[in-house]
Amino acid sequence: MAAALANAPAGAASDSLAKVRSGRLRGRYMQGVHSFRGVPYGADTATRRFQPALQELPWRGVRDALAYGPAAPQGSKDDGPGSEDCLYLNVWTPALRDGKPRPILFYIHGGAYNNGSGSDPQYDGSALCRRGDVVVVTVNHRLNVFGYLYLAQLGDARFVDSGNVGQLDLIQALQWVREHAAEFGGDPNNITVFGQSGGGAKIATLMAMPAARGLFQRAWTMSGQQVTAAGPRAATQRARIAMDAVGARDVDALLALPADALLAATRARDPSRVESTSLYFGPVVDGGSLPVHPFWPQAPAQSAQIPMVIGNTHDETRAFLGNDPANFALSWETLPAKLEKEQFVDLLPSVVIAEYRRLYPHYTPSEVFFAATTAGRSWRGAVEELEARARQGAPTWAYQLDWGSPLDGGKLGAFHTLDIPLVFDNTRAEGSRTGEGADAQRMADVMSEALLAFARTGNPNHRGLPQWETYGLERRQTMVFDTTSKQVDDPRGGERRLYQQAPFVQRGTA
Protein backbone atom coordinates (compact mmCIF):
# COMPACT_ATOMS: atom_id res chain seq x y z
CA MET A 1 0.00 0.00 0.00
CA ALA A 2 2.86 2.40 0.78
CA ALA A 3 4.08 2.36 -2.82
CA ALA A 4 0.59 2.92 -4.19
CA LEU A 5 -0.08 5.80 -1.84
CA ALA A 6 3.21 7.41 -2.69
CA ASN A 7 1.91 7.82 -6.26
CA ALA A 8 -1.24 9.63 -5.15
CA PRO A 9 -1.67 13.28 -6.22
CA ALA A 10 0.46 15.60 -4.10
CA GLY A 11 -2.49 17.28 -2.37
CA ALA A 12 -4.61 14.15 -1.97
CA ALA A 13 -5.25 12.50 1.37
CA SER A 14 -5.81 8.79 1.75
CA ASP A 15 -5.62 6.05 4.34
CA SER A 16 -2.41 4.41 5.51
CA LEU A 17 -2.35 1.02 7.21
CA ALA A 18 0.26 -0.21 9.67
CA LYS A 19 0.49 -3.35 11.75
CA VAL A 20 1.83 -3.10 15.30
CA ARG A 21 2.08 -5.58 18.14
CA SER A 22 -1.45 -4.98 19.41
CA GLY A 23 -3.36 -4.71 16.14
CA ARG A 24 -3.74 -2.79 12.92
CA LEU A 25 -3.73 1.00 12.63
CA ARG A 26 -5.35 3.36 10.18
CA GLY A 27 -3.38 6.54 9.59
CA ARG A 28 -3.42 9.31 7.02
CA TYR A 29 -1.22 9.88 3.97
CA MET A 30 -0.91 13.47 2.79
CA GLN A 31 1.71 15.43 0.87
CA GLY A 32 4.26 12.64 0.94
CA VAL A 33 3.96 11.78 4.63
CA HIS A 34 2.16 9.02 6.50
CA SER A 35 0.94 10.14 9.92
CA PHE A 36 -0.36 8.02 12.79
CA ARG A 37 -1.67 9.91 15.80
CA GLY A 38 -2.75 8.64 19.19
CA VAL A 39 -1.00 5.27 18.96
CA PRO A 40 -1.03 3.46 22.33
CA TYR A 41 2.32 2.22 23.62
CA GLY A 42 1.11 1.31 27.12
CA ALA A 43 -2.07 0.52 29.00
CA ASP A 44 -4.28 2.93 30.94
CA THR A 45 -2.28 3.86 34.04
CA ALA A 46 -5.32 4.56 36.23
CA THR A 47 -5.13 1.04 37.68
CA ARG A 48 -1.32 1.27 37.92
CA ARG A 49 -1.06 4.68 39.54
CA PHE A 50 2.52 5.34 40.74
CA GLN A 51 3.72 2.05 39.23
CA PRO A 52 5.42 1.14 35.94
CA ALA A 53 2.89 0.82 33.14
CA LEU A 54 1.78 -2.38 31.48
CA GLN A 55 1.74 -3.02 27.75
CA GLU A 56 -1.24 -1.67 25.83
CA LEU A 57 -4.20 -4.00 25.36
CA PRO A 58 -4.70 -5.56 21.91
CA TRP A 59 -7.68 -4.56 19.78
CA ARG A 60 -9.67 -6.25 17.05
CA GLY A 61 -10.08 -4.90 13.58
CA VAL A 62 -8.47 -1.65 12.46
CA ARG A 63 -8.00 1.12 15.01
CA ASP A 64 -8.12 4.72 13.84
CA ALA A 65 -4.90 6.63 14.50
CA LEU A 66 -6.14 9.93 13.16
CA ALA A 67 -6.38 12.07 16.30
CA TYR A 68 -3.96 12.80 19.12
CA GLY A 69 -4.37 10.86 22.34
CA PRO A 70 -5.05 12.58 25.68
CA ALA A 71 -2.24 14.25 27.58
CA ALA A 72 -1.40 13.39 31.16
CA PRO A 73 -3.49 15.12 33.85
CA GLN A 74 -2.08 18.60 34.41
CA GLY A 75 -2.86 22.18 35.24
CA SER A 76 -2.17 23.50 31.74
CA LYS A 77 -5.33 24.64 29.98
CA ASP A 78 -3.72 24.01 26.60
CA ASP A 79 -3.28 20.29 27.24
CA GLY A 80 -5.91 19.70 29.90
CA PRO A 81 -7.85 18.21 31.43
CA GLY A 82 -5.87 15.13 30.49
CA SER A 83 -6.30 11.52 31.48
CA GLU A 84 -4.42 8.79 33.27
CA ASP A 85 -4.91 6.89 30.02
CA CYS A 86 -2.17 9.00 28.42
CA LEU A 87 0.48 6.63 27.04
CA TYR A 88 0.21 7.56 23.37
CA LEU A 89 2.69 8.49 20.69
CA ASN A 90 2.52 9.94 17.19
CA VAL A 91 4.50 8.91 14.11
CA TRP A 92 5.28 10.70 10.84
CA THR A 93 7.14 8.83 8.13
CA PRO A 94 7.81 9.12 4.38
CA ALA A 95 7.19 5.40 3.79
CA LEU A 96 6.06 2.17 5.41
CA ARG A 97 7.81 -1.20 5.29
CA ASP A 98 10.15 -0.30 2.43
CA GLY A 99 13.29 -1.66 4.07
CA LYS A 100 15.04 1.71 4.03
CA PRO A 101 16.83 2.36 7.37
CA ARG A 102 15.82 5.97 8.01
CA PRO A 103 17.01 7.82 11.09
CA ILE A 104 14.32 8.10 13.76
CA LEU A 105 13.86 11.39 15.61
CA PHE A 106 12.07 10.95 18.96
CA TYR A 107 10.92 14.26 20.45
CA ILE A 108 10.21 14.73 24.16
CA HIS A 109 8.09 17.76 24.99
CA GLY A 110 8.81 20.47 27.52
CA GLY A 111 6.72 21.94 30.31
CA ALA A 112 9.18 20.97 33.05
CA TYR A 113 7.92 17.69 34.51
CA ASN A 114 4.48 19.19 35.04
CA ASN A 115 2.75 20.08 31.78
CA GLY A 116 2.73 19.57 28.04
CA SER A 117 2.10 16.90 25.44
CA GLY A 118 3.42 15.67 22.11
CA SER A 119 0.55 17.20 20.13
CA ASP A 120 1.59 20.85 19.89
CA PRO A 121 1.32 22.00 16.23
CA GLN A 122 4.96 23.09 16.37
CA TYR A 123 5.95 19.43 16.91
CA ASP A 124 4.32 18.18 13.71
CA GLY A 125 6.96 16.01 12.04
CA SER A 126 5.82 16.38 8.43
CA ALA A 127 8.33 19.05 7.43
CA LEU A 128 11.29 17.15 8.85
CA CYS A 129 10.12 13.99 7.06
CA ARG A 130 9.98 15.78 3.74
CA ARG A 131 13.21 17.69 4.24
CA GLY A 132 15.36 14.88 5.58
CA ASP A 133 13.72 11.53 4.74
CA VAL A 134 13.46 10.64 8.44
CA VAL A 135 10.87 9.21 10.81
CA VAL A 136 9.60 11.55 13.55
CA VAL A 137 7.92 10.47 16.79
CA THR A 138 6.38 12.57 19.57
CA VAL A 139 5.11 11.18 22.85
CA ASN A 140 2.88 11.72 25.88
CA HIS A 141 3.80 10.32 29.28
CA ARG A 142 2.88 10.71 32.94
CA LEU A 143 3.75 14.04 34.51
CA ASN A 144 3.80 15.86 37.85
CA VAL A 145 2.35 13.94 40.79
CA PHE A 146 1.35 11.02 38.53
CA GLY A 147 4.83 10.57 37.09
CA TYR A 148 7.23 11.66 39.83
CA LEU A 149 5.69 11.28 43.31
CA TYR A 150 8.24 9.32 45.35
CA LEU A 151 6.48 6.90 47.71
CA ALA A 152 9.17 4.24 48.09
CA GLN A 153 10.01 5.23 51.67
CA LEU A 154 6.41 4.89 52.87
CA GLY A 155 6.53 1.14 53.31
CA ASP A 156 4.81 -0.29 50.22
CA ALA A 157 7.05 -2.27 47.85
CA ARG A 158 4.67 -1.71 44.94
CA PHE A 159 5.90 1.86 44.65
CA VAL A 160 9.65 1.39 44.62
CA ASP A 161 9.85 3.09 41.18
CA SER A 162 7.17 5.72 41.81
CA GLY A 163 9.55 8.68 41.70
CA ASN A 164 10.52 7.89 38.12
CA VAL A 165 7.53 6.26 36.44
CA GLY A 166 7.23 9.24 34.10
CA GLN A 167 10.74 8.43 32.90
CA LEU A 168 9.93 4.73 32.68
CA ASP A 169 7.02 5.65 30.39
CA LEU A 170 9.51 7.28 28.02
CA ILE A 171 11.66 4.17 28.12
CA GLN A 172 8.61 2.05 27.30
CA ALA A 173 7.84 4.35 24.37
CA LEU A 174 11.41 4.06 23.08
CA GLN A 175 11.18 0.28 23.32
CA TRP A 176 7.95 0.41 21.29
CA VAL A 177 9.62 2.60 18.66
CA ARG A 178 12.60 0.28 18.36
CA GLU A 179 10.33 -2.75 18.07
CA HIS A 180 8.27 -1.15 15.28
CA ALA A 181 11.00 0.78 13.48
CA ALA A 182 10.93 -1.35 10.32
CA GLU A 183 7.13 -1.12 10.03
CA PHE A 184 7.41 2.67 9.89
CA GLY A 185 10.41 2.76 7.58
CA GLY A 186 13.00 3.50 10.26
CA ASP A 187 16.28 2.16 11.61
CA PRO A 188 16.00 0.67 15.13
CA ASN A 189 19.71 1.24 15.60
CA ASN A 190 19.64 4.94 14.76
CA ILE A 191 17.33 6.76 17.15
CA THR A 192 17.96 10.38 18.11
CA VAL A 193 16.19 11.74 21.17
CA PHE A 194 15.67 15.48 21.10
CA GLY A 195 13.75 17.75 23.40
CA GLN A 196 13.36 21.29 24.63
CA SER A 197 13.27 22.60 28.22
CA GLY A 198 11.76 19.84 30.35
CA GLY A 199 12.24 17.53 27.37
CA GLY A 200 15.97 18.18 27.46
CA ALA A 201 16.00 17.54 31.20
CA LYS A 202 14.21 14.23 30.68
CA ILE A 203 16.82 13.26 28.09
CA ALA A 204 19.68 14.10 30.45
CA THR A 205 18.00 11.88 33.04
CA LEU A 206 17.48 9.02 30.57
CA MET A 207 21.19 9.11 29.84
CA ALA A 208 21.83 7.93 33.42
CA MET A 209 19.03 5.32 33.62
CA PRO A 210 20.22 1.72 33.12
CA ALA A 211 16.94 0.66 31.49
CA ALA A 212 17.47 3.27 28.75
CA ARG A 213 20.86 1.91 27.74
CA GLY A 214 20.96 1.17 24.02
CA LEU A 215 17.52 2.63 23.26
CA PHE A 216 18.90 5.74 21.55
CA GLN A 217 22.16 6.53 19.80
CA ARG A 218 22.19 10.35 19.79
CA ALA A 219 20.86 13.15 22.03
CA TRP A 220 20.03 16.77 21.21
CA THR A 221 18.83 19.03 24.04
CA MET A 222 17.53 22.58 23.83
CA SER A 223 17.43 24.79 26.94
CA GLY A 224 16.84 21.79 29.17
CA GLN A 225 19.25 20.18 31.62
CA GLN A 226 19.17 17.85 34.61
CA VAL A 227 22.46 18.02 36.48
CA THR A 228 21.15 16.65 39.77
CA ALA A 229 17.94 14.82 40.61
CA ALA A 230 16.03 14.90 43.86
CA GLY A 231 17.42 12.79 46.67
CA PRO A 232 15.20 10.30 48.51
CA ARG A 233 14.95 12.42 51.65
CA ALA A 234 13.85 15.57 49.83
CA ALA A 235 11.54 13.61 47.54
CA THR A 236 9.88 11.87 50.50
CA GLN A 237 9.41 15.22 52.22
CA ARG A 238 7.65 16.51 49.12
CA ALA A 239 5.49 13.39 48.96
CA ARG A 240 4.30 14.08 52.51
CA ILE A 241 3.55 17.70 51.61
CA ALA A 242 1.58 16.46 48.60
CA MET A 243 -0.39 14.02 50.73
CA ASP A 244 -1.22 16.74 53.23
CA ALA A 245 -2.35 19.00 50.39
CA VAL A 246 -4.91 16.47 49.16
CA GLY A 247 -5.91 15.17 52.60
CA ALA A 248 -4.49 11.67 52.12
CA ARG A 249 -3.24 9.92 55.27
CA ASP A 250 -1.65 7.01 53.40
CA VAL A 251 -0.94 5.66 49.93
CA ASP A 252 -4.28 3.85 49.72
CA ALA A 253 -5.99 7.20 50.16
CA LEU A 254 -3.91 8.60 47.28
CA LEU A 255 -4.98 5.68 45.10
CA ALA A 256 -8.65 6.34 45.88
CA LEU A 257 -8.59 9.99 44.85
CA PRO A 258 -9.91 11.04 41.45
CA ALA A 259 -7.24 12.44 39.17
CA ASP A 260 -8.39 16.05 39.37
CA ALA A 261 -8.32 15.95 43.17
CA LEU A 262 -4.80 14.54 43.14
CA LEU A 263 -3.67 17.44 40.94
CA ALA A 264 -4.19 19.76 43.90
CA ALA A 265 -0.85 18.45 45.18
CA THR A 266 0.94 20.32 42.41
CA ARG A 267 -0.28 23.62 43.87
CA ALA A 268 1.15 23.01 47.34
CA ARG A 269 3.93 25.32 48.47
CA ASP A 270 7.46 23.96 48.14
CA PRO A 271 9.54 25.05 51.15
CA SER A 272 12.82 24.67 49.23
CA ARG A 273 11.76 27.04 46.45
CA VAL A 274 11.17 30.40 48.07
CA GLU A 275 10.63 32.09 44.70
CA SER A 276 7.76 29.78 43.72
CA THR A 277 4.68 28.35 45.34
CA SER A 278 4.46 25.19 43.27
CA LEU A 279 5.67 21.84 44.58
CA TYR A 280 8.57 20.42 42.58
CA PHE A 281 8.14 17.05 40.89
CA GLY A 282 11.00 15.51 38.94
CA PRO A 283 13.25 12.47 38.79
CA VAL A 284 14.56 10.89 41.97
CA VAL A 285 17.85 9.14 42.71
CA ASP A 286 16.11 6.06 44.04
CA GLY A 287 18.99 3.57 43.90
CA GLY A 288 17.22 1.53 41.25
CA SER A 289 15.71 3.02 38.11
CA LEU A 290 17.94 6.09 38.59
CA PRO A 291 21.00 5.04 40.59
CA VAL A 292 23.04 8.24 40.16
CA HIS A 293 22.56 11.95 39.58
CA PRO A 294 22.39 12.53 35.82
CA PHE A 295 25.38 14.88 35.46
CA TRP A 296 26.92 15.14 38.93
CA PRO A 297 29.69 14.67 39.91
CA GLN A 298 30.37 13.54 36.37
CA ALA A 299 28.58 12.86 33.10
CA PRO A 300 26.86 9.46 33.03
CA ALA A 301 29.34 6.74 32.13
CA GLN A 302 26.76 4.65 30.28
CA SER A 303 26.24 7.46 27.74
CA ALA A 304 29.84 8.48 27.16
CA GLN A 305 29.80 7.19 23.58
CA ILE A 306 26.52 8.89 22.65
CA PRO A 307 27.06 12.05 20.55
CA MET A 308 25.22 14.97 22.16
CA VAL A 309 24.26 18.53 21.26
CA ILE A 310 23.54 20.91 24.14
CA GLY A 311 21.94 24.23 23.20
CA ASN A 312 20.43 27.34 24.73
CA THR A 313 18.91 30.65 23.64
CA HIS A 314 20.55 33.99 24.35
CA ASP A 315 17.51 35.55 26.04
CA GLU A 316 15.87 32.58 27.73
CA THR A 317 14.06 34.41 30.52
CA ARG A 318 12.37 36.93 28.28
CA ALA A 319 9.87 34.12 27.69
CA PHE A 320 8.99 34.00 31.40
CA LEU A 321 9.69 37.52 32.59
CA GLY A 322 9.00 39.47 29.41
CA ASN A 323 5.26 39.35 29.91
CA ASP A 324 5.50 41.96 32.68
CA PRO A 325 5.83 45.46 31.19
CA ALA A 326 7.47 46.63 34.42
CA ASN A 327 10.52 44.49 33.63
CA PHE A 328 11.14 46.65 30.55
CA ALA A 329 11.05 49.84 32.59
CA LEU A 330 13.48 49.04 35.40
CA SER A 331 15.79 51.68 36.83
CA TRP A 332 19.14 51.19 38.50
CA GLU A 333 17.28 51.77 41.77
CA THR A 334 14.57 49.15 41.20
CA LEU A 335 16.80 46.54 39.53
CA PRO A 336 18.49 45.09 42.63
CA ALA A 337 15.27 43.92 44.31
CA LYS A 338 13.96 42.37 41.08
CA LEU A 339 17.24 40.62 40.44
CA GLU A 340 17.42 39.30 44.00
CA LYS A 341 14.07 37.56 43.45
CA GLU A 342 14.57 36.24 39.94
CA GLN A 343 18.21 35.23 39.38
CA PHE A 344 17.89 32.08 41.56
CA VAL A 345 21.55 32.30 42.56
CA ASP A 346 22.81 33.46 45.94
CA LEU A 347 25.04 36.28 44.74
CA LEU A 348 24.72 39.88 45.84
CA PRO A 349 22.73 41.80 43.22
CA SER A 350 25.12 44.71 43.64
CA VAL A 351 28.05 42.49 42.64
CA VAL A 352 26.16 41.11 39.65
CA ILE A 353 25.02 44.52 38.47
CA ALA A 354 28.48 46.02 38.78
CA GLU A 355 29.99 43.22 36.68
CA TYR A 356 27.32 43.53 33.99
CA ARG A 357 27.87 47.25 33.81
CA ARG A 358 31.58 46.58 33.35
CA LEU A 359 31.02 43.88 30.73
CA TYR A 360 28.24 45.68 28.84
CA PRO A 361 28.37 49.42 29.65
CA HIS A 362 25.67 50.12 27.05
CA TYR A 363 23.08 47.84 28.71
CA THR A 364 20.01 49.41 30.28
CA PRO A 365 18.81 48.16 33.69
CA SER A 366 16.21 45.99 31.98
CA GLU A 367 18.80 44.50 29.64
CA VAL A 368 20.97 43.66 32.64
CA PHE A 369 17.94 42.06 34.31
CA PHE A 370 17.12 39.74 31.42
CA ALA A 371 20.75 38.86 30.74
CA ALA A 372 21.54 38.14 34.38
CA THR A 373 18.45 36.04 35.01
CA THR A 374 19.19 34.05 31.86
CA ALA A 375 22.79 33.43 32.91
CA GLY A 376 21.88 32.75 36.51
CA ARG A 377 18.97 30.38 36.16
CA SER A 378 18.63 29.06 32.60
CA TRP A 379 22.11 28.75 31.18
CA ARG A 380 24.14 27.41 34.10
CA GLY A 381 22.90 23.84 33.81
CA ALA A 382 23.97 23.75 30.16
CA VAL A 383 27.46 24.89 31.11
CA GLU A 384 27.63 22.24 33.85
CA GLU A 385 26.66 19.48 31.41
CA LEU A 386 29.03 20.71 28.72
CA GLU A 387 31.93 20.79 31.15
CA ALA A 388 31.11 17.31 32.46
CA ARG A 389 30.98 15.89 28.94
CA ALA A 390 34.23 17.65 28.00
CA ARG A 391 36.01 16.18 31.03
CA GLN A 392 34.68 12.78 29.99
CA GLY A 393 35.96 13.19 26.46
CA ALA A 394 32.47 12.53 25.09
CA PRO A 395 31.54 13.89 21.62
CA THR A 396 29.57 17.05 22.38
CA TRP A 397 28.61 20.18 20.46
CA ALA A 398 27.32 23.42 22.00
CA TYR A 399 25.07 26.00 20.39
CA GLN A 400 23.56 29.34 21.31
CA LEU A 401 20.63 30.87 19.43
CA ASP A 402 21.19 34.62 19.10
CA TRP A 403 18.68 35.29 16.32
CA GLY A 404 15.65 36.92 17.89
CA SER A 405 11.99 36.91 17.01
CA PRO A 406 10.95 40.04 15.09
CA LEU A 407 7.48 39.98 16.65
CA ASP A 408 6.41 42.60 19.21
CA GLY A 409 9.12 44.90 18.00
CA GLY A 410 11.76 42.27 18.76
CA LYS A 411 11.51 42.88 22.51
CA LEU A 412 11.63 39.18 23.42
CA GLY A 413 14.83 38.46 21.48
CA ALA A 414 15.99 34.83 21.39
CA PHE A 415 13.58 33.67 24.07
CA HIS A 416 13.04 30.23 25.61
CA THR A 417 11.24 27.92 23.10
CA LEU A 418 12.13 30.00 20.01
CA ASP A 419 14.33 27.20 18.66
CA ILE A 420 11.48 24.65 18.59
CA PRO A 421 9.85 25.75 15.29
CA LEU A 422 13.32 26.33 13.82
CA VAL A 423 14.61 22.79 14.34
CA PHE A 424 11.23 21.35 13.27
CA ASP A 425 11.15 23.65 10.19
CA ASN A 426 7.68 24.73 11.33
CA THR A 427 7.92 28.53 11.37
CA ARG A 428 4.36 28.83 10.05
CA ALA A 429 2.83 26.42 12.54
CA GLU A 430 0.25 27.58 15.05
CA GLY A 431 2.03 28.88 18.12
CA SER A 432 5.30 29.69 16.38
CA ARG A 433 6.67 33.11 17.34
CA THR A 434 9.34 33.30 14.65
CA GLY A 435 7.30 35.33 12.21
CA GLU A 436 7.00 34.21 8.59
CA GLY A 437 9.76 36.30 7.07
CA ALA A 438 12.69 35.15 4.97
CA ASP A 439 15.10 35.39 7.92
CA ALA A 440 12.97 33.01 9.97
CA GLN A 441 12.97 30.46 7.17
CA ARG A 442 16.71 30.80 6.69
CA MET A 443 17.19 30.08 10.40
CA ALA A 444 14.90 27.07 10.12
CA ASP A 445 16.86 25.82 7.12
CA VAL A 446 20.16 26.03 8.99
CA MET A 447 18.98 24.59 12.32
CA SER A 448 16.78 21.81 10.96
CA GLU A 449 19.58 20.71 8.62
CA ALA A 450 21.95 20.58 11.59
CA LEU A 451 19.50 18.33 13.45
CA LEU A 452 19.06 16.10 10.40
CA ALA A 453 22.80 15.84 9.80
CA PHE A 454 23.25 14.91 13.45
CA ALA A 455 20.53 12.25 13.19
CA ARG A 456 22.14 10.76 10.10
CA THR A 457 25.80 10.82 11.12
CA GLY A 458 26.14 11.79 14.78
CA ASN A 459 27.72 15.11 13.72
CA PRO A 460 25.67 18.34 13.22
CA ASN A 461 27.95 19.86 10.60
CA HIS A 462 26.51 20.49 7.13
CA ARG A 463 27.30 22.57 4.08
CA GLY A 464 25.15 25.49 5.21
CA LEU A 465 27.21 26.07 8.36
CA PRO A 466 30.79 27.11 9.06
CA GLN A 467 32.88 24.46 10.77
CA TRP A 468 31.36 23.48 14.13
CA GLU A 469 33.89 21.89 16.45
CA THR A 470 33.21 19.79 19.52
CA TYR A 471 33.18 21.59 22.86
CA GLY A 472 36.39 21.65 24.88
CA LEU A 473 37.30 23.25 28.18
CA GLU A 474 40.18 25.25 26.73
CA ARG A 475 38.19 27.12 24.05
CA ARG A 476 34.52 26.28 24.77
CA GLN A 477 33.63 26.22 21.07
CA THR A 478 29.99 27.18 20.50
CA MET A 479 27.96 27.57 17.32
CA VAL A 480 26.10 30.88 17.50
CA PHE A 481 23.02 30.63 15.28
CA ASP A 482 22.13 34.01 13.79
CA THR A 483 21.44 35.56 10.40
CA THR A 484 25.13 34.86 9.84
CA SER A 485 25.97 31.85 11.99
CA LYS A 486 29.51 31.42 13.28
CA GLN A 487 31.50 29.43 15.80
CA VAL A 488 32.58 31.51 18.80
CA ASP A 489 34.94 30.52 21.60
CA ASP A 490 33.37 30.95 25.05
CA PRO A 491 30.54 33.35 24.19
CA ARG A 492 29.42 35.27 27.29
CA GLY A 493 32.52 34.04 29.08
CA GLY A 494 32.43 36.94 31.51
CA GLU A 495 28.88 36.03 32.55
CA ARG A 496 29.86 32.39 32.92
CA ARG A 497 32.74 33.26 35.22
CA LEU A 498 30.58 35.63 37.26
CA TYR A 499 27.95 33.03 38.08
CA GLN A 500 30.44 30.27 38.67
CA GLN A 501 31.39 32.11 41.85
CA ALA A 502 28.37 30.38 43.42
CA PRO A 503 27.97 26.59 43.51
CA PHE A 504 25.42 25.17 41.10
CA VAL A 505 22.29 23.68 42.63
CA GLN A 506 19.53 22.44 40.32
CA ARG A 507 16.36 24.03 41.60
CA GLY A 508 13.96 21.61 43.23
CA THR A 509 16.48 18.83 43.81
CA ALA A 510 17.72 19.93 47.24
UniProtKB/TrEMBL annotation:
The catalytic activity of this protein is classed by the Enzyme Commission as 3.1.1.-
What class does this enzyme belong to in the EC scheme? hydrolase
Q: Which SUPFAM superfamilies match?
A: alpha/beta-Hydrolases (SSF53474)
Every Carboxylesterase type B domain range = 17-489
InterPro entries in UniProt: AB_hydrolase_fold (IPR029058), CarbesteraseB (IPR002018), Carboxylesterase_B_AS (IPR019826), Carboxylesterase_B_CS (IPR019819), Type-B_Carboxylest/Lipase (IPR050309)
Keywords, comma-separated and alphabetical: Hydrolase
One Pfam family cited in the UniProt record for this chain: COesterase
Q: Family per UniProt?
A: Belongs to the type-B carboxylesterase/lipase family.
Q: What is this protein called?
A: Carboxylic ester hydrolase
Species per Swiss-Prot/TrEMBL record: Stenotrophomonas aracearum
